[in-house]
Amino acid sequence: MTKEIITKTQGNLLTALCVGFNLFLVSGDTNAKESFETLPETKDYSFAEAAIESITGDVYCDKAAENWQNLSYKNIFSKGWGKPWVSPPNGGGGAPRQGWINAYDGVFYRLSIATFGWQHGNNGDSYAGNLISYTPLNQRLEVITEIPMASSTGANGQTNFGDFRITPRIILSESKNTTQSFNLTFRTPTGNSINGNGVASITPQYQFWHNSWKGLVVRGGAGFTIPYAGELSKTGVRSSFDANLAIGYYFTPHDAVPFGDMVWYVSTNLSQPIDNRAATSNTFVSLTPGFRSHVGDNWYLLGALEVPVTSNSSYDYQVMGGIMKVY
Q1: For the segment 120-163, what is each residue's pLDDT rounded down to a tens digit?
Q2: For residue 324, which of 301, 308, 305 has the smallest C-alpha distance?
Q3: Rounded CA separation 79/85 (Å)
Q4: What are phi and psi of 138, to 5 degrees?
């Protein structure tokens, strides 16, 4: 039964990657066809000016919306770098570009979210709390910072600071229906190996987001985690191929608080070790049903339950939640 689940999940993830690749192939044509829809202002900003406007400006007003523009692979080095980021429009089906817990982003945001995760494990319960901020600098570049406020492992009961992460992100292409991005996460060994931290790694990832029919959103991507320094032997961290596919549906409009932008989704995550640091290389697969809701004044409540479907997992399930402020 487990092998069948893994096989089907891997097949679905491969299908998602094929969809992402097809989006790559058609992105140039899509952006060309839609280029007439937007007429952004012609003023070019310096890097600092674009960053300041992206961080402090009113990026959600109608005037700012007029400055959103299609971006493509063809002009990746020439377009968008000199323009402040503005909130992109809803997708072709009307769904907003928003983030979900335990699913790849694909798109840019300007927000901060406090997250909490509690794992029920085989060797005791564990928990972690993080403060994550998304800071756009222009229409092509964004930086994510993840501050691990607390990390506790059930086996020893110690609570420590975790490993700090910083992620530069680049928009590869963006049209009304689809966004594609490239992330490069740098993990720094600021935590304690007792909690599985104290590791330095890099994680390159391709991500996508798509909406063309009503409230249905498909997002995901793939990449690699490559640890290169720190407490590698103590933590047992592995180099791995990682993939994600998430599908959700938006049921309510933004202003229907406290249930505005109500989305229910299921996210599938896969991790396959690709090094020889251990005798076995078991595939990890999990399913995460979750929700997100606008409760008012651009505050959001998020929740999810991750359930591993492979027998090699170190935990039975993980409950996750988040409080988000979009600004």
Answers
A1: 987 789 999 999 999 999 999 999 999 999 999 876 678 999 99
A2: 301
A3: 12
A4: -165, -170
To the nearest 10°, report the CA torsion of 306, 307, 308, 313.
80
How far is residue 111's CA from residue 165's CA, in Å, rounded to a whole number?
A: 17
Summarize the confidence of residues 35-39 as an average pLDDT.
42
pLDDT at 205 over 90: yes
Burial of residue 272 (CB within 10 Å: 0-12, 13-18, 19+) is middle
pLDDT surpasses 50 at 19: no
How many degrees, rounded to 5, is the angle at CA 95 between CA 206 and CA 54? Answer: 65
Fold of 2-326: Outer membrane phospholipase (ompla); Chain C (2.40.230)
**Distance (Å, rounded) from C-alpha 140 to C-alpha 160?**
35
* Rounded-to-integer distance, Cα 145 and Cα 162, Å: 13
Asked if residue 258 has a cis previous peptide bond (ω within 30° of 0), the answer is: yes
Q: pLDDT tens digit string along 50-87?
A: 999 999 999 999 999 999 999 999 999 999 999 999 99
- Do the beta carbons of residue 69 and residue 52 sit within 8 Å? no
Distance of alpha carbon 2 from the chain centroid? 27
Task: Give per-residue pLDDT as tens, 85-104.
Answer: 999 999 999 999 999 999 99
- In a 13 Å sphere around the CA of 24, the CA atoms on its Cβ side amount to 12
